[in-house]
TrEMBL record:
<dbReference type="InterPro" id="IPR016162">
    <property type="entry name" value="Ald_DH_N"/>
</dbReference>
<dbReference type="InterPro" id="IPR016163">
    <property type="entry name" value="Ald_DH_C"/>
</dbReference>
<dbReference type="InterPro" id="IPR016161">
    <property type="entry name" value="Ald_DH/histidinol_DH"/>
</dbReference>
<dbReference type="InterPro" id="IPR015590">
    <property type="entry name" value="Aldehyde_DH_dom"/>
</dbReference>
<dbReference type="Pfam" id="PF00171">
    <property type="entry name" value="Aldedh"/>
</dbReference>
<protein>
    <submittedName>
        <fullName>Aldehyde dehydrogenase family protein</fullName>
    </submittedName>
</protein>
<feature type="domain" description="Aldehyde dehydrogenase">
    <location>
        <begin position="34"/>
        <end position="498"/>
    </location>
</feature>
<keyword id="KW-0560">Oxidoreductase</keyword>
<dbReference type="InterPro" id="IPR029510">
    <property type="entry name" value="Ald_DH_CS_GLU"/>
</dbReference>
<feature type="active site">
    <location>
        <position position="275"/>
    </location>
</feature>
<comment type="similarity">
    <text>Belongs to the aldehyde dehydrogenase family.</text>
</comment>
Length: 503
């Protein structure tokens, strides 16, 4: 570990357990064993507020992936896992959730150190949300069943029924913005239905997933049911998409990579869920409670420093209230505390990497070049650290790059509109369709707008509310399939029709 990272950890104080974890050489978790990459290759892990090196993790080879898939296959094709009754799976998942709760501080600290995010948000949202998700899906394990069906026209006597069966080995490819939580969203439902897993964290953020794997082992989940392969997307992610031992791909990440994963899945005839990018619109109607709406909009775009797929990044405001609303947004944004993730009062944390910081800054420069007015922010903080000020652009045009493309950083664009039909048209004028928000107290109008909005989630007078019982996933270029909710279970099971001929 670099000295700057050591000093950072000392300054804010982290638990002895996190220190002990970081002091260990990190290994992958395959078939219940802790392994280096078969060729010994490793990559560096950087702490985003100091730019120092935290540790290194194995950079898996395709041979390592083969081993992980073989372990997952063995458990699925008649291993101990496949013999477990649903309530036994439920019990194991509940034990895992208990262990996560016990080790919540460590998991949150690792997420803050590795990804850069606020440790408070990591504890209350990433870790607690993961625990809740595991508990929710644990309960489903014993409630999955088919139907008995009366054939509708075929002559003869039959007992006909359907069986719900787990799909098999599920490969999860995970992004860096919510490393633990996104992984758990995929794992909890897959294990509840009886699948086994091979998981690839993003190369920038493997640490919380590796600590989680220790808890999987401690919970008593049989070896080989969960395998963690740390590696490069272009090597391991790509190899997963064409691996013959994998039955289902569940991918969360950018739309360009999602297209490749989807194309490979179709080619290989694998099941696939794609949770992709977004450029979610927000419509603020003239009657909205402007103070409350501004507060929700600011949180809805700047939480996690804007590195949130369903962030409300395009705000369309009724022209009559555009200026007072903009003033409110700017005032609230100026109060947001920019600090390293471990600082207790951190709201705006550093971006995850130098590359992400450069990309966000180049979007800000393009907005200025294309004539948008900078209402606040716009700059990086002097280093070290990948900090970018929360930024608001005023009086944007729909054709600007900052309005059309996903920035994935703390940048909000605002545009006025004249009537509701125009607001809906502007909101839908995007390749994406992940989420949208409407602020108004005119509930009849709001209800009439909801069916017209092309998005997988619509929030009213709020942004980004998430619960394991509600499905999460997009329309259009934001992908298809759902994580969370009962809907996710359908994407992890197949239905077999059974015909028994009766005399
Ligand atoms: P990314 O697409 O670059 O990477 C995502 C994952 O894919 C990583 O694990 C990466 O290693 C892997 N990968 C890279 N190339 C691959 C390839 N050729 N084949 C297979 N896998 C490959 O995305 P990111 O930068 O890690 O995350 C940010 C993106 O994720 C944003 O676009 C964001 O909107 C999206 N996201 C979407 C959701 C959602 O639920 N819709 C949630 C979080 C993030």
């Amino acid at each position: 570990m670099d000295q700057v990272v050591q000093q950072y950890l000392d300054k804010y104080g982290i638990s002895a357990a996190t220190r002990a974890f970081l002091a260990k050489p990190q290994k992958m978790f395959i078939g219940g064993q802790w392994l280096d990459a078969s060729d010994g290759a490793r990559f560096k892990v950087t702490e985003p507020s100091t730019e120092g090196q935290i540790t290194t993790v194995p950079s898996a080879t395709v041979a390592d992936l083969d081993r992980a898939v073989a372990a997952a296959r063995a458990q699925f094709d008649g291993g101990e896992w496949r013999q477990l009754k649903p309530l036994a799976r439920e019990r194991l998942l509940q034990r895992l959730a208990n262990l996560m709760e016990e080790h919540a501080t460590e998991l949150a600290e690792l997420e803050a150190i590795d990804m850069g995010k606020s440790v408070g948000f990591a504890r209350d949202i990433d870790v607690q949300g993961s625990v809740d998700t595991i508990r929710y899906f644990a309960g489903w394990a014993s409630k999955l069943h088919g139907r008995t069906v009366e054939p509708s026209s075929l002559p003869g006597n039959y007992l006909a029924y359907t069986r719900k069966e787990p799909l098999g080995v599920v490969a999860a490819i995970v992004p860096w913005n919510f490393p633990l939580q996104t992984m758990v969203w995929k794992l909890a439902a897959a294990l509840a239905v009886g699948c086994t897993m091979v998981i690839k964290p993003a190369e920038l953020t493997s640490l919380s997933t590796l600590r989680f794997a220790e808890l999987v082992q401690e919970a008593g989940i049989p070896d080989g049911v969960v395998n963690i392969v740390t590696g490069r997307g272009s090597v391991i992610g790509a190899a997963m998409t064409s691996h013959p031992g994998i039955d289902k791909l569940t991918f969360t990440g950018s739309t360009p990579v999602g297209r490749k994963v989807g194309a490979a899945a179709v080619d290989q005839l694998k099941h696939v869920t794609l949770e992709l990018g977004g450029k979610s619109p927000v419509i603020v109607l003239a009657d909205a409670d402007l103070k409350a709406a501004a507060n929700a909009v600011v949180n809805g775009v700047f939480f996690n420093s804007g590195q949130v797929c369903d962030a409300g990044t395009r705000v369309y405001v009724a022209r009559s209230v555009y200026q007072p609303f903009l003033d409110e947004l700017v005032a609230l944004t100026r109060e947001l505390k920019i600090a390293p993730g471990l600082a207790p009062d951190c709201y705006i944390s550093p971006l995850v990497s130098a590359q992400q910081k450069d990309s966000v800054l180049s979007y800000i420069a393009s907005g200025i070049e294309e004539g948008a007015q900078l209402a606040c922010g716009g700059k990086a903080l002097p280093g070290p650290g990948f900090f970018v000020e929360p930024t608001i652009f005023a009086h944007c045009r729909q054709d600007m790059r900052i309005v059309r493309e996903e920035i994935f950083g703390p940048v909000l664009v605002t545009l006025p509109f004249d009537d509701v039909d125009e607001a809906v048209a502007l909101a839908n004028d995007t390749e994406y369709g992940l989420a949208a928000a409407i602020y108004s107290n005119d509930l009849s109008l709001v209800h009439s707008l909801i069916p017209r909005i092309e998005a997988g989630m619509v929030y009213v007078n709020a942004h980004g509310t998430i619960d394991p019982a509600l499905p999460f996933g997009g329309f259009k270029g934001s992908g298809f399939g759902k994580d969370l909710g009962a809907e996710q279970l359908d994407h992890l099971m197949t239905t077999k029709a059974v015909w028994i001929t009766l005399p």
